[in-house]
Amino acid sequence: MGILAKRALTGTALVLVITAAILWSDYSFIFLLLTINLLSLLEFYRLFCAENISPAKLPGAILSTAILLTFAIVVSRNGDWKILLVNIPLTFGIFIIELYRRANRPFHNLALTFLGILCVTIPLCFFIGIGFLPFSTGKYHYQVILGYFLILWTDDTLAYFSGKAFGKHPLFKRISPGKTWEGSVGGALSAIFIAYLLSGYFNIISTKGWISLALIIIVAGTLGDLIKSLMKRSLGAKDSGAILPGHGGMLDRFDSLLGSAPFVFSYLLFIY
User: Fold this and answer.
1) CA within 20 to 30 Å of 122's CA: 38, 166, 209, 263, which one?
2) Under a CB-based contact definition with an 8 Å cutoff, are residues 242 and 248 in contact?
3) Same domain, residue pair 62 and 185
C-alpha cells in the first residue's frame, strides 16, 4: 500500500474516532485526551532514552495522568479544586524515586521526565479547559472542540496537498525542508475559510472570533510543528513513532494541537 493510501486510511479512522469521542459525551472526550496524553508522553520518553539517560516513564505517566484527570474534574465542576493537591506528593515522589535509582545522570532524568509533562500534559490541560469554558457553568461545549479539530485537519491536509502541488520555497529549510511557504499559505487560507463556515453553524463564538481562533491555531500550530521537527532532528529521528501508519507517531499527529492549545485557551478566556 502506498504512503498516500496509508495516510488516507489512518487519517479517516482517526477523524472518525476523535469525532465520535467529542460528540458522545464529556467523559468520552476526557478519555480521548487521557489516551492521547499517555501515548504521546511515552513516545516523548522513548525518544530521549539514551545510554546514560532514562526518564522515569511509569512515575511520569502516573503524575501526568493525575494532573490531566484532576484538572478535568475541577473544570467540569465534578470536584473541588483541592483535588489538585494530590499532584504535589506525586511530583515529590518522582524526586524520591530518582534518589534510589542510582542513575549516572539523575537530574538529566528528572529534567526530561518533567519536560515531557510540560510539553504534552500541560497543553492538553488547556485543551480540556477549552471544552468547559466558561468555567462558571461546568458545561461541556463540543462545538468549540470539534471546530478546533476541523480547523487543524483542514490546515494540515490542504498544506500537504498545496505543498505537493505548488511548493517551491522552503518555510524553514534548516529544521523542516519538506515544508514550504506555498503549502503553509494554502493550508492557512483553507483553515480560515472553514472557520468562517463554522461560524454559521456554531454561533457559540462570533465569526470574528472563529477567524481569530483559526489564525492563532495556524501560527502557533505551525511553530509547534517546527519545534517538534527541531526535537526530532536533534535526536536523529525521522518520526516520533510508528503507531499511526502514514503519519508516524502521536507527537507527529498532535504537535500542532500541543503548540496552539494554550494560546487558544487564553484567547477564549478573554472573549467569553
Assistant:
1) 209
2) yes
3) no
